[in-house]
Amino acid sequence: MSADMCQGGSVVAYAPASSANLSVGFDVLGAALAPIDGSLLGDRVLVEAAEQPFALAAVGRYAHKLPDDPKKNILYDCWVAYGEALEKRGLTLKPLRMVLEKNLPVGSGLGSSACSVVAALEGLNAFHGAPLDEHDLLLLMGEMEGRISGGVHYDNVAPCYLGGLQLIVEEAGIISQGIPTFEQWYWVVCYPGTVVSTAAARAILPAQYRRQECLTYGRRLAAFVHASYTGQEPLAASVLKDVIAEPYRAALIEGFHEVREHAAQNGALATGISGSGPTVFSVLKDATQAERLKAWLEANFVKNEDGFARVCKLDLQGARITGSEL
Q: Can you tell me which residues bind ATP (predicted)?
């Protein structure tokens, strides 16, 4: 991103929602989501020039879920960490004001915190003329996400930032790499409006797994990645199953088994828990069936006004600068 992107003294960065794990890839797979109706499912952050060193405001559908104290907002931590990263490069932060448009619910399983982190750091970097490269920015995003979830996990921030379907590598200096996707797949996601914290969802998992479960996990993940590269859609769909988290986390999501049963009857290739839940996802090939499932979920799985359902394809762009005004 060039420095001239910051024309008029402001930029707006958008970061899409993401679904981590995808049943078959606990902590190592994540996909960015884009509703097919053209709406934006994700957070936006405005960064604009100001006289004071830092100011922060929050707007949007889920802004009321955020802490009132700006210093308890993850965007404040992003500002501090980005400033430290600039200092290491002999640069200084410009006086600025940030506005977070919070469009994703907290604790939804759609990468809400990752959305805010990625949009904030993408915006800050563009505002300063992009002194941090992609790798360094992704490292910083992972660090910020880790402050919320209790550990560095890239399965939301990587797809949110880079787009598409990301395989988290974390070896040989490589954090994440994109893998091929099945363009004909529709991803129906539904957030019921309830909350499952990442900490609670991790606490319910066993400390140890049996050897057979570990072997099954590795075999299915390898098969999915291989099928993605070789275009074997039936094989890829057949291994979208979870032996690590879903057997335990399903108990935290009221109505999950009914959703899976109805989705299968409606033509879904697979159904699973998005991230740590309570959002669920289903993969379908037919647009009409996808819309029908969305309507059923809205009527039978959504619990309150905070909930929603969307028919999506994968967002191949990831985070981007969308303009200079919210």
A: 105-115
